[in-house]
Design a protein that fits this description.
The complex is a heterodimer of chains A (496) and B (447). Chain A has 496 residues and is of the alpha/beta class. Chain A has 2 domains: 88 residues, no CATH class; 295 residues, Metal-dependent hydrolases (TIM Barrel, Alpha-Beta Barrel). Chain A has 15 helices and 16 strands. By secondary structure, chain B is of the alpha/beta class. The longest helix of chain B has 31 residues. The radius of gyration of chain B is 23 Å and the shape is globular. Chain B starts with 9 loop residues before the first helix and ends in a 6-residue tail after the last helix. The relative contact order of chain B is 0.17. Classes of the chains: A alpha/beta (496), B alpha/beta (447). At the A-B interface, helix 1, helix 2, helix 3, helix 7 and helix 9 of A face strand 10, strand 11, helix 4, helix 9 and helix 12 of B.
């Protein structure tokens, strides 16, 4: 919703948007294939998450990894030293539910089982929301398909390596996922209009049957392939393989434990429903997403070893969110569930540290437990905890530095690092603004000259008096026409 | 079980353990005298008072100061180690008018048609809304509730003159019990030229030709002008003769105090272009304007200051409007507006997120707004902007006793509200959420 509000209203604005995208990437860090610098962070309060807090601690980063953590580390030759006196360093925030960096709509809502669609195919590394979330301390996002279908599209985990091409964003080695969805969204309760065709399912019962039906197919499909592979392995020749089904392939991976299920849900009944279906077909649900009534069935979640990734304090935006409570995360933690706090929204992601802190107030989690909600817990949920989620020797140097305790509404991100490289630096961002403002003005002036005007009595009028016939062509520019040379140089990809 | 079930004075236990469905403590009448002693008192009308005492009687603040002794028979609230503030004021919400956003049967925010100046929020506020106790548990004791659309969401504009906003206490058995002031401001969602709209029927973005959008905008502004002109004419007719001389018209009648500058116009607008247009309009029509929203108010701060127009800010936890705006554009705006000399208030423009009011203010502090200004922007400044400063917003003798006693900074995420008074009544902070928490925290292990 935020994005649509942010959509540009008149024509010149679409030009500024083109200028815009390069704004914060103007000084991108070294490309991933270049060696990461050696960085020593000194005098910081280090919130390791795994082994407590180190006051006046140091962190040595080498080759994109955490080489050493301790109370005093000698600076190696050529190390870039960051004095972090008064600052707090914590592991980069991991957002277990994100829709940033997606090119176009997040939902393939036309079919109830849209496992054929894959978010990994439409990663947009130019999305400004990557940078904004980075500026909020997020280093990793689980990028999900929308919740319009019982079985949605395939999902992918990315690192927010702003300024790098889309091919460099995926978290290599992370388990791919698939989005499931239960409740009001997959049954299309709140959208669609009179006159538009309803599609099955329209009830929670139908949602369950849709998922079961798909897994019956997937199981049959799998046994055809198993039989075929067995015969091939047995030396048989000239066999015709079963016909490939791109829709069922990801579900077979789910059955084989090679793809995680991240299921959107709200109500207690649908949570238990999916657990029953998973049991019937022998697969695991990796995480329940939102899971706002998870607190009602926390024991069942804990017993099933299923993760829960929830909002901090959202409620009452629909009926299935009417029993949502801000104590949800804490209560589930206290019952032994592996819990994370997510954003589902590019703006919310910019302050997940604050959202995690609310579980201290609502439900009495400790400082460390609250921190885990946005670091090691989502790392475990995404199966990447060996690499990220805490400050330990050998882990990826994904870090965020704050000017004070991150579990405060007054904390501001100073730097965000991924793989030992500084991808966001608040001072640098601020320092670059006058230059970018100048460049933007120059580009707008240039463009104004290129657009014939009926009259130009004031700049305000100019905005509204662009000849109509010029409009369609201008509006299509971003998609269909090559950008004019003056704008090409300011597109990103590390041009500067 | 709950962290909120703290050690209580035995005499208070009855009130605070009252069932959550009750909007407030029954036994405590507003005639009870309270003495809140030993806390640090932030009156918002002067320096903070260490070890101060606040006396409450008949729903009002009787006295506040350092050397005040509790009158005989007063109920003493020991606030040692705690902090005392005026209750927070959320200057734009739709509390009482909308329960569950997706269920139209529970939504009474927007009447059919673009011009409904005569509808009044207070006429449809649901006193037993679950949002009320949930919100007051966050220390918010009063809100403005606004009948409007368009400016609230990213959807297409559905109202221009949305109706009259009412100021209410967040406790009460009936609207008359809750009301601070019924007719506080006329909501005006300034029309927008929108070439791209979010279509709820297809759940996707849809573009609209600029020409069409501009024509629609011009038409709405021209209709609005017509309404004000007609209301002015109607006022003349009213002044010149008895009811027999003119046909009574409720809508025009509702606009008369607007044309006289007696009822301010709450203009909901975010883009600089729309704000400029609204300022120009209100100037020409001699209307008293309050700006609400104001994401791009910084672009027109000089204009706003020169016209003394106060700004009720949309949440600072909102992404910038433009892709090339600095990432912290919205966060740093309150500091910029304040140093430009504008009067500002924070508001959540929502119900579900009303409890984020303090968080919004704190984030503005993190981005340069002086702390004192932030605290004022959720207490005394909204009261002043909305013309209610004689009743609420500070802890001063004679004001309505809307008071919170907290464990610390009321803007910080982890602070608890220990005691809450509305109209001088000790009011429960229990709510639906806490009740559900307690219920399920006590759920036995499944067999």
């Amino acid at each position: 919703m935020n994005r649509s509000r942010a959509q540009i209203v008149f024509i010149l604005a679409s030009l500024t948007a083109v200028v815009a995208v390069q704004t914060p990437g103007a000084n991108p860090p070294a490309a991933p294939d270049e060696p990461a610098p050696v960085i020593l962070i000194q005098n910081a309060t280090i919130l390791t998450v795994s082994h407590g807090t180190i006051e006046h601690g140091s962190l040595l980063l080498k080759d994109g990894k955490i080489a050493e953590v301790g109370s005093s580390i000698k600076a190696p030759k050529d190390a870039q030293v960051i004095d972090a006196a008064g600052q707090f360093v914590m592991p980069g925030i991991i957002d277990c539910h994100s829709h940033i960096a997606i090119d176009g709509n997040v939902n393939e809502g036309s079919i109830a089982v849209s496992s054929i669609a894959n978010i990994a195919d439409v990663i947009n590394s130019d999305d400004i929301e990557i940078y904004r979330d980075l500026a909020g301390g997020v280093t990793i996002a689980n990028v999900l398909h929308g919740s319009a279908n019982p079985i949605g599209g395939q999902t992918t985990v990315i690192k927010l390596r702003w300024g790098q091409p889309a091919s460099k964003l995926p978290f290599q080695g992370a388990m791919p996922g698939i989005k499931f969805a239960l409740g009001e969204n997959p049954k299309h309760s709140n959208f669609g209009a009179r006159g538009t065709a309803a599609r099955y399912p329209a009830t929670r019962m139908g949602v369950e049957e849709t998922i079961r039906g798909a897994f019956v197919e997937a199981r049959d499909y799998k046994s055809e392939w198993d039989a075929y592979n067995k015969r091939v392995a047995g030396g048989e020749k000239n066999l015709i393989p079963p016909r490939r089904d791109l829709r069922l392939d990801p579900l077979v991976e789910v059955l084989e434990g090679k793809r995680y299920v991240h299921s959107h849900c709200y109500r207690e009944d649908e949570i238990l429903m999916l657990l029953r279906v998973a049991k019937e077909f022998g697969f695991k649900v990796r995480t329940f997403q939102h899971v706002l009534e998870g607190y009602k069935v926390a024991d069942e979640l804990a017993a099933g070893g299923v993760g829960a990734s929830t909002f901090s304090d959202w409620w009452a935006f629909k009926v299935e969110a009417y029993d949502a409570i801000p104590y949800n995360a804490a209560l589930m933690v206290q019952r032994g569930v592996l819990v994370s706090v997510n954003s589902d929204d590019a703006e919310e992601a910019t302050h997940l540290n604050q959202e995690a802190a609310k579980s201290i107030k609502y439900g009495g989690l400790s400082h460390d437990q609250a921190l885990k909600l946005i670091t090691i817990n989502p790392a475990i949920q995404l199966g990447i905890d060996k690499r990220v989620g805490s400050i330990d020797t050998g882990k990826d140097a994904d870090l965020v530095m704050y000017n004070r305790d991150p579990l405060s509404a007054y904390a501001v991100v100073q730097k965000t690092l991924i793989d030992g490289r500084v991808y966001f630096d608040r001072q640098r961002d601020i320092a670059q603004r006058p230059e970018l403002e100048k460049e933007k003005k120059a580009l707008l002036e240039k463009e104004k000259k290129a657009v014939p005007e009926k009259k130009s009595d004031s700049s305000k009028k100019t905005e509204e008096k662009i000849p109509e016939e010029k409009k369609p062509q201008e509006e299509k520019k971003p998609q269909e026409a090559p950008k004019p040379p003056s704008l090409v140089s300011s597109s990103f990809g590390g041009a500067q | 079980m709950s962290r909120h079930s703290l050690c209580l004075l035995p005499s208070l236990a009855y009130f605070l353990f009252a069932p959550p469905s009750q909007p407030q403590s029954q036994a405590a009448s507003s005639s009870t005298t309270y003495a809140i002693t030993g806390g640090k008192v932030f009156t918002l009308a002067g320096d903070a008072i260490d070890n101060g005492t606040l006396l409450i009687r008949d729903g009002k603040i009787l006295a506040v100061g350092a050397n005040i002794s509790a009158p005989a028979g007063a109920q003493v609230i020991d606030a040692k180690g705690l902090q005392v503030y005026p209750g927070l004021f959320d200057a734009v919400t739709q509390i009482g008018l909308r329960e569950i956003a997706s269920v139209s049967g529970t939504v009474d925010t927007t009447e059919t048609g673009l011009f409904n100046p005569d509808v009044v929020a207070a006429e449809a506020v649901l006193p037993s809304s679950e949002h009320i106790p949930v919100t007051r548990a966050a220390g918010i004791t009063e809100v403005l509730t606004v009948p409007a659309s368009g400016g609230f969401d990213s959807g297409s504009s559905q109202s221009v003159l949305g109706g009259q906003a009412s100021a209410i206490h967040l406790a009460g058995w009936s609207i008359s019990d809750m009301l601070i002031k019924k007719n506080v401001a006329m909501a005006l969602s300034w029309p927008r030229i929108e070439t791209e709209v979010f279509d709820m029927t297809t759940f996707s973005r849809r573009s609209k030709p600029y020409k069409e959008a501009k024509e629609e905008y011009d038409k709405q502004v021209s209709e609005l002008t017509d309404w004000i002109d007609r209301a002015r004419h109607y006022a003349l007719a009213m002044g010149h003769g008895g009811p027999a001389d003119y046909q009574r018209d409720l809508k025009l009648e509702a606009l008369v105090p607007v044309t006289r500058g007696e009822l301010p116009v709450l203009v909901i607008a975010d883009r600089a272009r729309e704000i400029r247009a609204a300022v120009d309009f209100c100037d020409k029509q001699k209307l008293k304007m309050i700006l609400a929203g104001g994401l791009e108010a910084y672009k027109v701060k000089d204009l706003l200051r020169s016209k003394s127009i106060p700004v009720i800010l949309r949440p600072v936890l909102t992404l910038p409007l433009q892709e090339d705006d600095p990432y912290d554009r919205v966060l740093s705006q309150p500091a910029e507006l304040k140093s430009a000399g504008l009067k500002i208030a924070f508001a959540t423009f929502d119900n579900s997120f009303a409890r984020r009011l303090g968080q919004q203010a704190a984030n503005a502090v993190a981005h340069g707004l002086p702390y004192d200004a932030a605290l004022k922007a959720v207490t005394v400044e909204p009261a002043q902007i909305l013309g209610l400063a004689d009743q609420v917003g500070t802890l001063e003798t004679g004001k309505i006793a809307n008071v919170i006693v907290t464990t610390g900074d009321p803007l910080e995420l982890t602070t608890d509200v220990r005691y809450l008074f509305i109209k001088g009544r000790l009011t429960s902070t229990d709510n639906k959420h806490k009740a559900l928490y307690e219920k399920y925290a006590n759920r036995p292990k499944p067999q």
